[in-house]
């Protein structure tokens, strides 16, 4: 596919900060019970619905994929940044990681039991998010689940630009994101928001959705 300017900026930004970013997020799941609760609930939901491959899209250095693999899921990971994938492969050699964009996933139709996009859709311009969700729906089997994490907008609806330290990003209101999901093959089954922690600048949000 033809790379857009924002894809180049995002890949370059994460390549340049891969080591620093990996050190920064290394213990976030261990130290954040709310995020861990939602990720573990996602894993339990998938286990209750049978087995199958789960893809961590925008996996970064692979920490969420590794957590879910330890929870018993069959994991793979994909990221735009070659440096992030290099680090993920070094730290978690038992999980297959590949370089690639989320706009064109290397999976057959309905091949996946689950998708996790943990703070990876935030760098996609809002106008392109529907196409990304449609691609997620293509590769996720009906009844499969997807988990999304992102910075939450201050307003109850809409999307706002956010001055992320690595690349331009966007904050979504929970209801706006859930409505966008409903228009592109998904139904939100759980929505969770929390206030910012001391090392965060904004409220945070998580949405669990099922492929309809």
Automatic annotation (TrEMBL):
**Which residue windows are coiled coil?**
none
One Pfam family in the UniProt entry: Methyltransf_25
Q: Which residues form the Methyltransferase domain?
A: 54-144
Gene Ontology biological process terms from the UniProt entry: methylation
Keywords, ordered alphabetically:
Methyltransferase, Transferase
Q: Which GO terms describe its molecular function?
A: methyltransferase activity
Known CDD domains for this protein? Answer: AdoMet_MTases (cd02440)
Q: What InterPro entries does the database record attribute to this sequence? A: Methyltransf_25, Methyltransf_Superfamily, SAM-dependent_MTases_sf
The molecule here is called: Class I SAM-dependent methyltransferase
Native organism is Nocardia yunnanensis
